[in-house]
Write a structure and sequence with these properties.
The structure holds two protein chains of two kinds. Chain A is an alpha+beta fold. Chain A is built from 31 helices and 21 strands. Among the domains of chain A are: 98 residues, Immunoglobulins (Immunoglobulin-like, Sandwich); 111 residues, Tumour Suppressor Smad4, CATH 2.60.200.20. In chain A, 55% of the residues lie in helices and 11% in strands. In chain A, α14 packs antiparallel against α15, α14 runs parallel beside α20 and α20 packs parallel to α25. Chain B has one domain. In chain B, α3 runs antiparallel to α10 and α3 packs across α19. The chains are: A alpha+beta, B mainly alpha.
Chain lengths: 912, 542
Amino acid sequence: MYQKALLGIVLFPLIGAIANGVFGRKAGRNVVHAVAVLSVACSFALALYAFGSLLHLRYGQGEEAASITYTAYEWFSLSLNHRTLSIPVRFVMDSLSGVMTLVVTGIGLLIHIYSTGYMSEEPSYARFFAYLNLFTASMLILILGSSLPVMFVGWEGVGVCSYLLIGFWYENPNYAAAGRKAFVANRIGDFGVILGMFLLATAANSLEFTDINELAHVRPTQFTSALALGPQGAPFWVIPSISLATAATLFLFLGCTGKSAQLPLYVWLPDAMAGPTPVSALIHAATMVTSGIYLVCRLSPVFALAPATMAVMAIIGAVTALMAASVGLVQNDIKKILAYSTVSQLGFMFAAVGCGAFAAGFMHVYTHAFFKACLFLGAGSVMHAVGAHGDADIRTLGGLRKYMPLTNVTFLVSCLAIAGVPLFSGFFSKDEILVGVLSSAGYFSFAPWLAPTVFGMLVLGATMTAFYMFRLYFLTFSGEFRGGPVHETHAPAAGAHGDHGDHEDERHDHDAAHDHDHGHAHHEPHESPPSMTIPLIVLGVGAVFAGYVWIGIVHFEPWVKWLEPSLGSIHAEHGHATPYIAMAFGLLAAVVGIGLAFQFYYKGSEVPAKLATQFGGLHRLLMDKWRVDELYDATVLAGSRGLARLCAAFDKYVVDGILTHVSSQAVASLSFLFTRFQTGLVHAYGAVMAVGLFFVAFHFVVPHADPAVVGDPTGLSVELAANQGLGYEYRWDFDADGRFDTEWSNDSKAEHAFSDADIVRFAVVFEGAGYGARPRTLVVAPKQEIKVSSGALTRIMTRGELSLDELGESWQRGEDAAAPLIKADEQGLLIKPRGARVRKAGAVQPADAEVRVSRGEHVSIGEARLSVSGYVKPRVQVRNAFGMERTESVGVVVPKVPPRITAEIAAVQGSK
Amino acid sequence: MTTEPSHLLSLLCGLPLLAALAVLFTPRQMAGFIRGFTVFVMVLTFVLSLRLLGADYGTAAMQFSERHVLVPAYGVTYSLGIDGMSLWLVLLTTFITPLATYASWTHIETKLKEYALSMLLLESAMLGAFFALDVLLFYVFWELMLVPMLLIIGIWGGVQRVYAAVKFFLFTMVGSLLMLVAILYLVQQFKEQTGHYSFELRELKLLLLPATTQLWLFSAFALAFAIKVPMFPVHTWLPDAHVQAPTGGSVILAAVMLKLGTYGFLRFAMPLFPSGSHRASSTLALLAVIGIIYGAYCAWVQPDVKKLVAYSSVSHLGFVMLGIYSLSSHGLRGSILQMVNHGISTGALFLLVGVIYERRHTRLLDDFGGLAKVMPNFTVIFVIVTMSSIGLPTTNGFVGEFMILAGAFMSETLGRHGPIACFFAATGVILAAIYMLHAVLKMFWGPLTNHENRDLPDLTRREHLVLAPLVALIFYIGLFPNPLLKPMSASVDRFSLEYLAKLRAGDQNPEARGMLQESFVPAGATAAVKVPDGALAVGGAR
């Protein structure tokens, strides 16, 4: 029963999406949001039910690795190592996905409710909710999918919804471009996921998470063996020798950097703030962007086997955390600060999971979902209140505490949580991350500097976080209201920090309807309607207490215990003091950060302005977000665009040019040539004819016999034939002794039986090893030697020698075997095998024997075969009607020894 | 195996032909009748073709086979049949043709009768090419296809239609003629070894030729098919042909005719010349991967949306070729599925481009922008088809691409080159998103600046009717690909087993290599083929 709930969890939002997508345009607003909210509410209820069942299985029935599985049907199948690898549409809820499902459906529900207020004036109301529902469904598929491909459905699905929602106000080209940027950055990541998936599949013969993880536990060598990629024998710097686990996890991590906005692919997330604020809260803060961490946790047993990847993750996470936090310090747009804060917090999570603190990283996913969603919704509430949509400059706000008490309180607790103030949820997760990072020193034995460095960066990042969050808070809520955003003066105000093309700042009239609806910018700010404040309150409560659900005040054992069956682990040790060191630094960070912000922005100080002028270059760099976008534009984007133009031009001028123009030119020039022969001028034809006739006549005057052997001589009797011609007469000298054996005759054919005495030379037919080799005929006279040597084959062949290579791989009998000696005498060949494996009549000959190979016999040396025949070279003299004579000769092999294949075929056919 | 004689295939192939004859004798004034009758016959053909699903595809044997000897002295036969490899391509043909024809009635104003005639002839020829199991018969249908398509592009096409039509015709002819030479040589070899002529595929397949000879013959076949696919670098006829062709022609060209190239590899070139094919496999896989990336890059900067879609075909068909040369079960099945998918999604894209072209008489991306405001339904369908084209999961494109990439990655024949090929092919996934979303961005998002676009009507009922089944199929195949994949399995497995077995036979018998003068008895050849589990029953049944 509860298995089916999993299907319901996914299907309800999907049905809601389809219903609103198809019929929403005609339905009323109430129907639209009723459908949307109810579908997610049902999903949430089912999630609670399923989670309850999971708790019951775990604690009621004592199943340690409790999970709920629902298999819908077989999607498709692959075949791997000659076995069928079925890919079913299957959903699994275990301790990890259970928590995540609750977070997504719960926060999703709140944000759906919030949106009914926030988006109430939106003309495309139904479209918005259809997208939002579709996103929820995709996210749930991502979480609940039991295998990599099913997860990938959700993974790409959330990407598309993100694309559609960022570009929700598509009429603004910048918003639409931001959507595309997000999609493409995600796709670069998806490319990594696909390859990582295949690598894991080849190792585990399965794509199910449980199978892969179990194998990683049971037979880690399956993953840690070196990867055989690339051309064989390629030097290591072409294909570095890395383990399969490292390669697979690096590819997967590439996917995570795309989805979870880490370096180098994070650039889409700040731009993604172009979407409506509830979207920023749900997708670009609480849920979708954390799916990278979720994936790492999901496959944590495999990740734990790849310390190199873990190190990369930890470093990238820490650098991202620090870099994004530094940008957050100076930004003035409320959503932009929150966006960089999200990037930074995601960096914290990756630093945590990179250091093997999977439970701590995932804990931060969970607490972050509450306080960051609350912050975004609070920001939305602020913008709603002051009539800004999409962006609000905090320098124009202030004093909102008076007007919006509820928003103020919830925003404040969330700021306290994200700053890591003790007893708020963020404190616990951040603290555990710091502990986890410090404890991982033993794991990174190859880089002892890693854990302390990451720790230091994170503490610095945490300090910055506390600072910029409270800068945001104080500037927005404390002091006096500074009048709110003024649309007329907006553009110059935005340009105050230079003219470096911050195109988001130009988006002020995305929708005529919005301008109209929020044209009350100069009115006093007001608190938002209950549909918006209630979610704020719930999330604010979560931001305070979310940590306690799992935590025995100092330690977070219950959380770890709960997740243990789902997560992998590394060997991490920490001393007794470590938690206290971490906590001390965490506290210090919070106190310093908040204190500075209080000093600068609550009390009002000249220091920030002074700092900004004193470090003008750095300040501008931070304002410009380190100019990473500009860097990408100038390098990667310009490069690939240039490549695309190059390809198109190449196609037009080179490929098509060769195929059409060159070929048609070739035909044209040939036809030009041939038309010269068709001039119609009789004297030209006559001249050509005369030349032709001359050659024909010459051919007749000079006789040519071209003697050849008729058939394959089986014995010593050979039939010879010469060319026929005008009045030809022939006489033959069969034994090539200079005296003609026949008289002149008209018969072009002759037959002669050679006697043994005639045969003074031998034809040695040599068939080398391997089937590529063509048989070779060497002509030897008595006492002549056939050398067997090593060296370049072509040179050996032209000298009429044999190559050791041609004997195949196993011609040697011993270690330092000498090449055989082959010599001809009057009877045939004499072979001294020496070190070579010489077989005659099937028997291997001793090394010092003299193996005789007479005419018609054959031996094999190694894999090659030598057969001996006689060789004669009869001559023929021909005389034509004009009395001109000419002598020609032809080499004849008698008798022709059939090649070995014929012999083998005969053997095969004989055996049947 | 269907043992009782069936004439279904002849009927399917003959029905449009007869209808064409009927149209020929209809006065051209009866335009309404011609329109209705043509579509009716095509729909009837589709309905009849659904009966093909009734056969048992659990075996690899040919279904609905028909065989009549046409020229006994030269072994030319009229033999037809389908199996799991051609089933869905046949259904795709009978499904897409009426849609394309129906959609083009509003656009075709002159010489309606001739247009109907061409479409009917084209359908007949395409079906014949899919059914034919005799190389000469196949060749006849293969060439017959060219004529109506030449007319469709050359008469009802755009401004440069004659150039495009001639280019299309010459490119394909060059390849086909070489193929004809190869066919004749092959049959001559067969005669030398067995003493009688035969053009029948199942007999010719038994011939084991020396590897070098195979390579030459394979190259001739492969060139003909590669031009049709089209593979890099012989693809340049395609953008011109597509841009100039009328909507109906483009749809048929993309959806069905290109598939005959890939189908030709599967049905003829590879089974006839495994050793030759094997020697060329790395090259072809490389060209396929180049095609994927190169086609995508070219598509990205095209100013004309139809040209963009045309180049995307080069990229997509690169995936299909890569899957074929992975020679793994799922790579092959993925390829065949992807042929169908490409037919559906690219067919739909051309229909959509036709819709906007009919309204605006331009296809330049710069002329559009903000269309989502005025044509919401059009936008929704375009975006869905785009998602299918870039292989988003739950749409049909994903399953095919995924199986192909997995096939290349795990391919035994490509070996260590497999993962590398997969790596580069997978970048096509990124590029596809870039160029398709570029088109979407330019056409639909942004402000509605061009005043000519302000009053564009949304999709009409006729257009909805044409596009709806395609959208439904996009999701159906994406969610439930198994009903399509299952019937392929037996044929595909037999194909790869036979291919690999024949390859091994060539390797194990050096006498079959480099020995033209040694006659080789086919009976011995098949005896030498290792039969793993009786799957080669057809190979030995003579």
